[in-house]
Specification:
Layout: E1 2-8, E2 11-17, E3 23-29, E4 33-38, H1 43-59, E5 69-75, H2 97-105, E6 107-113, H3 119-128, H4 132-135, E7 154-155, H5 170-176, E8 180-185, E9 200-202, H6 250-262, E10 267-272, H7 285-295, H8 316-338, E11 353-359, E12 366-367, E13 370-371, H9 387-390, E14 391-392, E15 394-397, E16 405-412, H10 416-423, H11 430-433, H12 442-445, E17 462-467, E18 475-480, E19 483-488, E20 493-498, E21 500-501, E22 504-505, H13 521-537, E23 544-545, E24 559-565, E25 568-573, E26 580-588, E27 615-616, E28 618-620, E29 625-629, E30 636-643, E31 648-650, E32 654-655
Parallel strand pairs: 5-10, 5-11, 6-16, 8-9, 8-10
Antiparallel strand pairs: 1-2, 2-3, 3-4, 6-14, 6-15, 7-23, 11-15, 12-13, 17-18, 18-19, 19-20, 21-22, 24-25, 25-29, 26-27, 26-30, 28-29, 30-31, 30-32
Bound molecules: calcium ion (3 copies).
Length: 661
């Protein structure tokens, strides 16, 4: 019995022969399903063909179908229950026909997770393939020093102003492998996406720019900025049987423009919508009216007519945002369906393009008095590691993805990077590959594997989150099998929930804390140790103790003296207290060069000292002094210290050239 499987690029050759009977050779490719299948040839001929194919592959001749296009279609704050795909309990009233079509073309992931419960860390995670804990970007408060108040026992870590330019991004990787790279929409991990390997960039908010008054000012066909489309689209109602028009959306148009201009080469389009994040509004009066009718609200709903404080999913403004996103997805899908692929004659782009659809975190439920949406039956929403904050809709469609399929295992958007490398037959340096936190899920997508296997070739059994933010909700969490465990390391508190049992729903609401149930003591121990091993392996930072907390029982390190001479900044630490364990310095902007409020239009010099980004400082005298070199041109700086007792201590802001305290 002979049995070989050989992989080259996206091709797989499987050869098997028995001594007595026939032999079979299958050459397959995800774009083409089975390319060659020999049943009728003799063993000798099949074997010769096998050798010949091996030779062809080595020569790379078979790679003509390589490099499918990639689109990441990313929605902001779209909750797991905000689409009809995995709808539990109360029926989702928002309609997403194009997402349903995408799911029919590909695979729906019923237990998909964002890397974090908020924007920046999830986005940084997708674009680097690295866990937000490893990146040190665990929330959206970038470049902000938050000194504790006497009532705060814990402090969040300091987060850099922007994602480090040294990281290899997915855009860099795709560009290095012959792709054209484009980013449209929200970024939120630093200055302009040009700084991170994207060639075509448009950060436009599109149709989601703020409105003075959301109850009126709906554009007409002649509107200058948001003209209504000639073409009619979903929804088709009794009132509007031919459908409705949509106002011009620069974000969607930019995405179509990028594809049109670059389709003769492989492209990677990163399409990150600003919706369905607040402000909760729509420019589409017809769509709003449709949802007002459906939800029994007057049109337009105002502060006196209509009620936006009703519980559940009853906000017609929010509903309109969800369907607008779906319309945008439909525009992209229609373009791919109707456009010939110049690189693959006879094929349309839809046959040679992967679409990864998901959301950066769970749904937002409330903004001031207004109800936005509801993640029920999931617990909480964005900025929480509970299911409502991190479980998100996810669909992947593309060449070789099993149509209309479903995967119920645990997946994470951190899996995109290695999966995209695999399906595009792209390579990155081995030391970069080691940094990737996710797993290649291409086997699951094509139905050749039922399990997700990590880089060590073992089944990946769990996912973890690290979110040392949000006061009382500072937590790390691990999901494995039926269970989810939460740890507040500093407070020493834990929670354990059983989401499912024997494949059926159990406590998806996370209502019944099993942490004190002796039946689960061993399980808790195992999960805690796995979680802490992951946190350690990813160098997770925080939460820390607050030195100014009124109830402290431990002592915090104190700075006794600051000095600066010839660009050398130094600190002395009081020898009676604990020593310093970690030390960093950040550079602050010069007072006469005020920062722009939003910096997404900026192209920064990556070789210059970066403002509000942590640089390591040197720890001397067994932890009782700290020094750092301040580069020329930097006029203000500040030390950030972690002491042996895990207190986070911010040094005073220091100005170069002034007397120091
Ligand atoms: Ca529901
Ligand atoms: Ca978000
Ligand atoms: Ca809720």
């Amino acid at each position: 019995m002979l049995d070989f499987t050989i992989h080259y690029s996206l091709f797989t050759i499987h050869y098997s022969a028995t001594a007595t009977a026939s032999s079979i050779l299958r050459l397959s490719h995800p774009l083409e399903n089975v390319v060659i299948n020999t049943h009728n040839l003799s063993t000798m001929k099949t074997f010769r063909l096998f050798l010949y194919l091996c030779l062809l592959m080595t020569l790379g001749i078979a790679s003509a179908l390589d490099k499918p296009n990639i689109i990441i279609f990313y929605v902001d704050d779209l909750g797991w229950q905000d689409v009809g795909l995995n709808d539990l309990d109360d029926k989702c009233p928002y309609e997403t026909p194009n997402l349903d079509k995408l799911a029919a073309m590909g695979m729906n992931f019923t237990q998909a997770y964002s890397p974090a419960p908020s924007c920046s860390p999830s986005r940084a995670g997708i674009i680097t393939g690295q866990h937000p804990a490893q990146l040190g970007m665990t929330h959206v408060y970038l470049g902000k020093v938050t000194e504790g108040r006497p009532k705060d026992q814990f402090l969040s870590p300091y987060l850099d102003q922007h994602l480090n330019f040294d990281h290899l991004t997915l855009a860099d990787a795709m560009k290095d492998n012959g792709y054209k790279t484009g980013h449209v929409g929200k970024w939120h991990i630093g200055p302009n996406a040009d700084n991170y390997g994207f060639e075509f960039v448009d950060h436009s908010r599109g149709v989601h720019r703020g409105m003075k008054d959301r109850t009126k000012d709906f554009p007409t066909a002649k509107d200058k900025q948001y003209p209504l489309s000639q073409e009619k689209y979903f929804p088709f109602s009794d009132k509007k049987p031919d459908g409705i028009s949509y106002p011009y959306d620069q974000l969607t148009e930019s995405a179509l423009k990028f594809m049109t201009e670059n389709k003769s080469e492989p492209f990677f389009l990163n399409m990150w919508h600003w919706m369905v994040h607040w402000p909760v509004l729509t420019r589409n009066g017809e769509l709003l009216e449709y949802y007002c009718d459906k939800m029994g609200q007057p049109f337009p709903p105002t502060s006196t007519a209509g009620d936006m404080t009703l519980p559940g999913q009853q906000n017609p403004y929010f509903a309109s945002m969800v369907t607008t996103i779906d319309w945008s997805l439909g525009r992209v899908m229609d373009y791919l369906k109707n456009t010939d692929d110049p690189r693959n004659p006879g094929k349309k782009l839809i046959e040679t393009t992967y679409i990864f659809f998901s959301s950066d975190n769970g749904g937002a439920e409330q903004k001031a008095k207004e109800t936005i949406s509801d993640n029920f039956p999931l617990k909480y929403g964005k900025t929480n590691t509970e299911e409502g904050g991190v479980r998100v809709p996810m669909v992947v469609a593309g060449p070789g993805v099993t149509q209309g399929s479903r995967f119920d295992g645990l997946v994470n958007q951190l899996d995109y990077f290695p999966t995209i490398l695999k399906v595009t037959a792209s390579s990155i340096a081995a030391d970069q590959k080691k940094l990737l936190s996710g797993a290649d899920i291409s086997g699951v997508l094509t139905g050749t594997s039922e399990k997700i296997v990590n880089t060590e070739g073992k089944e990946r059994t769990h996912l973890f989150w690290h979110y040392p933010h949000g006061g009382g909700s500072m937590k790390s969490a691990i999901r494995e099998g039926d269970f989810k465990l939460y740890q507040h390391a500093q407070a020493g508190s834990y929670e354990l929930y059983r989401l499912s049992k024997d494949g059926a729903r159990q406590d998806i609401e996370e209502n019944i804390n099993l942490i004190n149930d002796p039946e689960y003591a061993e399980l808790t121990k195992g999960l805690t140790s796995k979680l802490n091993a992951d946190l350690k392996a990813h160098n997770a930072q925080g939460p820390y103790l607050n030195p100014t907390y009124k109830g402290n029982t431990l002592q915090a390190a104190t700075i006794s003296q600051s000095a600066l001479s010839s660009q050398q900044a130094s600190l002395s630490i009081d020898p009676k207290g604990p020593a310093i364990a970690q030390a960093y310095v950040i550079y602050l902007p010069s007072p006469d060069a005020p920062e722009k409020k939003r910096n997404e239009d900026t192209l920064l010099d990556p070789s210059a000292p970066q403002i509000r980004v942590k640089y390591p400082a040197e720890i001397k005298d067994k932890g009782y002094s700290v020094t750092a070199t301040i580069p020329k041109g930097i006029t203000r700086y500040r030390f950030i210290l972690i002491d042996e007792n895990n207190f986070l201590i911010y040094g005073e802001e220091q100005a170069v050239g002034l007397n120091l305290k």
